[in-house]
Amino acid sequence: MVKGAMQQWLRVIITLLILLITEGHPVDITYLQSAVAKGAVCLDGSPPAYHFDKGFGAGVNNWFIQLEGGAWCNNATTCLSRTKTRLGSSKLMVKTVSFSGILSNKAKFNPDFYNWNRIRIRYCDGSSFTGDVEAVDPKTKVYYRGARIFSAVMEDFLAKGMKNAQNAILAGCSAGSLAAILHCDRFKGLLPPGAKVKCLSDAGFFINAKTISGASHIEQFYSDVVNTHGSAKNLPQSCTSRLKPGLCFFPQNVAQQIKTPLFLVNAAYDSWQIKNILAPGVADPRGTWRNCKLDILKCSSAQLETMQGYRNEFLKALNGLGPSSTRGYYINSCYAHCQTGTQETWLREDSPRLASTTIAKAVGDWFYDRNRFQEIDCPYPCDKTCKNRNFESDVQPVDMDL
Ligand SMILES: *[C@@H]1O[C@H](CO)[C@@H](O)[C@H](O)[C@H]1NC(C)=O
């Protein structure tokens, strides 16, 4: 009992400290119980969940929706282990998260979106919200229902006022921003025809590149994800009609056909991609990349050269989308992953700049058609505004479990 009370107190103190550090504000969780009857559930069968901070003033009819990230599970084994984490069960999610950066409710920290309805949808399906398998796995009792979660939460927001939206953005970080790309046109279709609707991908442009040992690791992995979750029918048809479904999990193969305006914020040296696409553990059995992956300053010149090659491939994939008058992009040369949901990288005195512009300004200007921002940074290490720190997910540290 005493231990329980102590833990409660520690939790409160740590939460306060973190809110102070992140310059954010706490927002409580909402469990969408009504989704369960529709079979729209997390991997373990628990209800989906989100954090909703209501819009105010001139922002009441504007909706910003952020899909949480957290990679994927690719087979029965990895999806079963996920059910024992917050990424597979809403029973294990912390009840309060800190909203900062693009989710901040203060004009000073988030000038263009602070008074919008701001929502973070928790990620617990392991498929970037694309899965839909009717049968529950008889052996593991795992549910593959990510796409149903997406539909159920959207229905809920529409009923809560999103049906009257004037402005709306579907966004995300990492696996969540891949979901924002994959669901972008579907999202647009849910909203009133007169609404201004755009999609924002933060660290969601995962490229189909080979590992340092030359294996097609991520391509195989995505193919397994799509097969395990029955995702094919929920991926953009403009892609699945041409390519194998697993390949339609790559933004480079779908973004060109997306009709809704899309903004890509991504580090060309995205730290998740370097760790998991270029140099995953399986491709580096002797661990020669271990230190470099943790800290770019520890990379050898040969490793840096390999990373420059990765950047070239990244830019090639991006250029492959062809020109667009509505697309925006902010491709900096930081060693980072997810830069919009953290105040430090979104908008601050010392936050990253590209063409003298913060991410917050670039995204705001693009959304409101003040300026279509399309900039690519010079190669590492030219950019002195980078933090080159790991912002591994958009989950604030307050999310940690004591
Ligand atoms: C499941 O995926 C993991 C991670 O890629 C892999 O290590 C494991 O061998 C796979 N298991 C099966 C049964 O395919």
UniProtKB/TrEMBL annotation:
Job description of the protein: Hydrolyzes acetyl esters in homogalacturonan regions of pectin. In type I primary cell wall, galacturonic acid residues of pectin can be acetylated at the O-2 and O-3 positions. Decreasing the degree of acetylation of pectin gels in vitro alters their physical properties.
Major subcellular location class: secreted
Designated name of the protein: Pectin acetylesterase
Signal peptide extent: 1-24
Enzyme Commission designation: 3.1.1.-
Subcellular location: Secreted, Cell wall
Protein family per UniProt: Belongs to the pectinacetylesterase family.
Keywords, in A-Z order: Cell wall, Cell wall biogenesis/degradation, Hydrolase, Secreted, Signal
GO molecular function: pectin acetylesterase activity
Species, as recorded: Nicotiana attenuata
One Pfam family in the UniProt entry: PAE
Enzymatic class: hydrolase
GO biological process, one term: cell wall organization
Gene Ontology CC: plant-type cell wall
InterPro entries recorded: PAE/NOTUM
